[in-house]
Amino acid sequence: MQNGWFGSPEQVEHVLRTLGADRDEDGRFLLYGEAPFVGLDGDMIVSGGTQYSVSDEKKNLLAALHNTSYGLSVTVL
Questions:
Q1: Which stretch of DSSP H or E encloses residue 33?
Q2: Sheet harboring 2-7: ordered strands across?
Q3: How much is the average pLDDT of 43-65?
Q4: pLDDT per residue over 7-45, tens digit each?
Q5: Would you give the end-to-end CA distance of the chain in angstroms?
Q6: Are 53 and 30 in contact (CB under 8 A)?
Q7: Neighbour tally for 21: CB within 10 Å
Q8: Considering just the CA atoms, what is the radius of gyration of the chain in Å?
Q9: pTM reported for the whole predicted model
């Protein structure tokens, strides 16, 4: 089991935009490591192994999300 985060893709995108996360040539945010899980209802689960980058420096997405008032902290099985 590990710590995780549960919330909407829009919340994740807002955090990544605010932090100035790197994007690919099509404007999509670059994520590394474990891919977030997207459920049938569209909500996301992000685990501790998911990273984003700012100026090519990788950072932990879970830590960034936990520093916001968005979503919920969860345990990922």
A1: strand 31-33
A2: 37-38, 44-47, 2-7, 72-76
A3: 95
A4: 999 999 999 999 999 999 999 999 999 988 888 888 999
A5: 5
A6: yes
A7: 20
A8: 12
A9: 0.88
